[in-house]
Amino acid sequence: YIDEMERPAGMNVRLNPDNNENGDHCTVIWMSKWNTGTLSHELVHFVMHTFNQSQVPIDIDNEEAFAFYMEYWTREVTRVYRRYPKGYPPKLAKK
Length: 95
Known about the structure:
By secondary structure, the chain is an alpha+beta fold. The protein contains three helices and two strands; from the N terminus they run E-E-H-H-H. It has helices at residues 36-53, 63-83, 90-93, and strands at 10-15, 26-31.
């Protein structure tokens, strides 16, 4: 699917097993290269989908919950990226 797109900066892919009745099984956020703006963009898609799937309204009355969830995932993805900037565990990254 990525090969068919014209140079995407990033994308948000939801993976579902065939026999899943409880919603998405996992989400993959893919970026062609590390970019904080692209990460923010893809995380908005992820958070909106998560809220929608959980039937949490996305509106001004819920803006603080949305902001906290965005903040959590931004910090978590950034923390993992700092630890594994090339996507490998440290022993493999040195090779």
